[in-house]
Amino acid sequence: MKEVEQIVTFKNYSMCLRDAVALFTKQLINNLFDENHLSESGPQTKIKFLKILERLSIENGQDLWNDFENSFITIRQKLDLDAAAAEKNDPAAKSLEEIYLAYPGFYAIAVHRLSHQLLKQEVPVLPRMMSEFAHSTTGTDIHPGAEIGDSFFIDHATGIVIGETTIIKDNVQIFQGVTLGGIQVKKSLASTKRHPTIESGVIIYANATILGGDVVIGANSVIGANVCITETIPEKSVVTVQSENNIFQKRN
Predict the structure, then answer these.
(1) 146-252 carries CATH number 2.160.10.10
(2) What would the pLDDT profile of 196-244 be if each residue is shown by its tens digit?
(3) What pLDDT, on the 0 to 100 scale, is given for residue 184?
């Protein structure tokens, strides 16, 4: 019997776009904070954006850029509040300049606020690529779908995971290794709220894990290091590890 040669056709995915998105994101943030950089490279940033959308087969690039550009002032104002929160709450912070230039948590938040805006504009793929660039750069994994309020402070940054449907209100602080995740991973739950809500004024210390879309951490609560929470916590609670089994106790 004559052998039939099998022809395998692979879809072309432009993996080089990862590099293009990384360069675009870095340039975008530089423009957001540096007027000199903006005057020199602002038009190039727009061109990069339009080319990326073209490679992703996304139409209406000019309209999307216009809406995106109109959000920059608001995003910058929110980021200035984030930087001020870091200076206020971190005893190691010596100046605002240090936070803008050296804090990985602040950089992760900056990328998130930009990618979240693009997600709100219903731009596919690009917001997630931007968030993954921030993840690789800072060790902080924030899904662009997460809703984050004003004056958000991430300390140390490494190992933090914030899921797609997480809601974080104002004046929240989180430390390294924190996971705000789903209690189970099922494709059928894709359109449901799978991640917790963190009310205003909450502090979440290192390596705490909070899981579940129905879970609410009440305002002005303190979540201690290494706890695992899968139920709602009342406001003004203190949650700490009680034993070697990481069972938590609540103190109002």
Answers:
(1) yes
(2) 999 999 999 999 999 999 999 999 999 999 999 999 999 999 999 876 5
(3) 76
Domain with CATH 2.160.10.10 in the chain: 146-252
- In the chain, CATH 1.10.3130.10 covers 9-141
Distances (CA, A) of 3 to 6, 8, 113, 129: 9, 15, 56, 43
- Tell me: the pLDDT tens digits for 10-21? 677 778 899 999
CATH number, span 9-141: 1.10.3130.10
Q: What's the pLDDT score for residue 249?
A: 57
- Amino acid identity of residue 127, one-letter, is P
pTM (predicted TM-score): 0.90
Burial class (CB in 10 A: 0-12, 13-18, 19+), 101: exposed
**Cα angle 198, 157, 144; round to 5:** 60
The β-bridge relationship of strands 153-154 and 160-162 is: unpaired
Residue 91 DSSP SS3: coil
For residues 227 and 174, what is the distance between their CA atoms, to the nearest angstrom? 13
